Structures are given as C-alpha cells and as structure tokens.
Amino acid sequence: MRFGLFCLMPQRDRNRTVQQIADDAIEQARLAEALDFETVWFAEHHFSNYSVIPSPLMMAAYCAGRTNRIKLGTGVLVLPLYDPIRLIEEIAFVDQISGGRLQLGLGSGYQDYEFKHFGRNLSQSQAMFLEILDIIEAAFLSGEIAFNGAHFAIDRAALGLRPKQTPMPPIYVAGLMQNTEVQARLARSGHTPFLPQHHRPAAALTSARQNIEDIWRSVDRPNQMRLAIQRFAFVTRNRNEAREAAENIRYTLRLALGLRFNTAELDGAVLREGPVPNEPTLDEILEHAPIGDPTRVAEVLADDIRILRPDHLSLMMQFGSLPQPLATKSLQLLGSDVLPILEKELGDLFTTDSNNAKRHS
User: Fold this and answer.
1) Helix, strand and coil percent figures for the chain, each rounded to 5
2) In sequence order, what are the residues at sequence separation of 6 or more whose Cβ sits closer than 8 angstroms to the Cβ of residue 155?
3) Are residues 54 and 44 in contact, defined by beta-carbon separation less than 8 angstroms?
C-alpha cells in the first residue's frame, strides 16, 4: 500500500495570497517526498475560494520542478470542462517534463455552479466524461486522435507528443459510484476507483467497496482491482489543536456540501460560512477521523486499512485556515510516529516500486 498527500489549497483566510498557498503546498509535497509518500494530489475547482487551483496539471508542472521522486496527481481533472485535444497534449507534456511522474485522477464533476459558468450542463457530465475518457485512451494507445460522438467530433490527426509512461499515466477515477455501467467500463480498462472517506469511519464505505468488487468480478477482473481512498488526517498531542483541525474540516465539508447540492451562497467569489443540513458535529469528526495523538491516529488508520484494504491512501492534512506550521508538524509526526506504529501492526506499508526505492525507518 502507498500513501498520498492531497492538496485542496483553499483560501479561507483572504489575506493569504495565492503564491503563499502554492508555496505551502510545495513545502508539504517536499516533506511528503522525504517520507516516501507515493503521490501528491492537486485539486481542481473554479470561481470560489474553496480552492485556488483552476488546473491540476499546471500545479503538477510547477511541483515537478520543485521535487524529484514523488508522483504528481491530478485530483481530479473535471473532464467535461476541458477541450479534449488540448487536454491530451497537456497530459503528455506534464508527464514528459516530470520524468514520467504523472498520475491521472479523473472525474465527471459535481458542482452545478462551476458547470454553468463554463457553459456546460451538469446533467450531461457523465456522458461527456465517458467520451473524453474514450478519446484519451484511444489517442495514447494508437498515437493519433480521432473521434465522432454525441458531444465531440475530432478529425483524425497524429499526436506530436506522447506521455513518457507507456502507453499513458495510471488513471484513477473519482465519483460515478451510482452508475454500475460506468463502473464496469472503468473496471474493464483497469482504472483505479477513488472513494471519498473524508471524516467517516471505515464502515461507511464497506458496501461501496463490496459493490466495486462485485463489478470487477462481473467483468472477470477480480484479482486486478485496486482501490484508492481519500481521508482527512491530523496528528497532534494538543487537544486544542485537534479541535481547531476538526473545525477546519467541518468548514471544508460545509463548503463542499453547499457546492454539491447547489445551496452555497457567495459574496463575490468568497463562499459564505454557515451550517448545512446533515453536517457532522465537531465531536463526530473527532470521533471518526484520524485526529489526535500518534497512537490514536494509527489506530484509526489501521482500521481503515484492515477493513477497506486500499492500495492507496490519500490524506488531506491541511484544510480551511489551518496554519502551515501545524500542517507540517502534523505531517512530520505522521512520518516519525504514526507510520512506525502502523508498520509494526500491519507489516511493511511501503511496497517496492519500479526503481526499488523503499522507505527505511
């Protein structure tokens, strides 16, 4: 199993500049690289302070020059918002300049607010997602781009740029869990499902995991399934810091839920903060999320790993206006104190990669 670091890069504190937020993310990525995390993931959002990243590929390219080994993930590219021809070329370019470190996280999107401003219809997002996925796969497999579908028509042309990874970077897909036909399509291509656990206990995802297993079995690929999980995490021995982290997690969930259900209110591009229906309490977040001292965090993550059996566990460790020093201290404690407990409990978590690079405690 491998670990990832997810960077949402919000701007809750409007006094924080985009440059400062980006520099904080790079500092975290470099620290995660030192801890032998597999991947740093970068979000994509538009028209609000929920995240300052409009293009995960741009952030991945920026990070490529500031890191050496860690893989660079798009978490995720909202495919219906892209021109597929430009997207294919940019994917190939970033994979080339990063030395083949790109990981492609893809999704169909969920925020109607973003879609409307791009002139897209959210109700068509899954169909558009599938067409662009077909275009990406066919282009990198064949070396040329050509397509004629309901949403895109592309004249045949040879690709002038191919990814360094052959035939393409690994693909992870977030969302789309309710569409079994889409999941079967993804399973046949061998793409990794990316499930959002966030603040919830592992038990909340067991049925989703079983559904994915059933789908992979139905397409005769039961032993080839991989699974990625997205999780909030924060390590501290200070109770006040733990509660501050929980409050910033709740803030993040409030914004995400408001955007998902189209109830968010904005002051310009700033999302107004306020309770939303069915949000968790701070105590519920503290109870179920891996927040607290290293032993507590290790216990929660060990349960996640035993129950959900992920191949990749992506951790969001800075959220809301959580100060950078607390986020980096938390990440350091994860490496120095939490991971050794997990390895003692579960065995070596860091599988050898193609370069035989391995973490040594």
Assistant:
1) 45, 20, 35
2) 146
3) yes
Res 361: pLDDT: 31
Strands 153-158 and 144-148 turn out to be: antiparallel
Q: Is 89 exposed, middle or buried (0-12, 13-18, 19+ CB in 10 A)?
A: middle
Looking at residue 3, its amino acid is F
User: Nearest 5°: phi and psi at 6?
Assistant: -100, 125
For residue 196, which of 260, 133, 146 has the smallest C-alpha distance? Answer: 260
Measure the CA–CA gap between 299 and 305, rounded to whole angstroms: 10
Single out the residue of 313, 337, 316, 336 nearest to residue 327, CA to CA.
316
Q: Is this structure's pTM higher than 0.90?
A: yes
Q: What are phi and psi of 254, to 5 degrees?
A: -60, -45
- Burial (CB count <10 Å: 0-12, 13-18, 19+), residue 233: buried
3-class SS at 171? strand
Cα separations (Å) of 288 from 220, 327, 359? 35, 19, 28
What is the rounded CA–CA span in Å between residue 87 and residue 126? 17
Look at the block and give the residue holding tokens 């109607």. 112
Strands 270-271 and 266-267: antiparallel
- Show the domains of the chain with their CATH numbers: 2-346 (3.20.20.30)
Counted residue by residue, the chain has a size of 361
30-40 average pLDDT score: 97
Supply the pLDDT for residue 177. 87
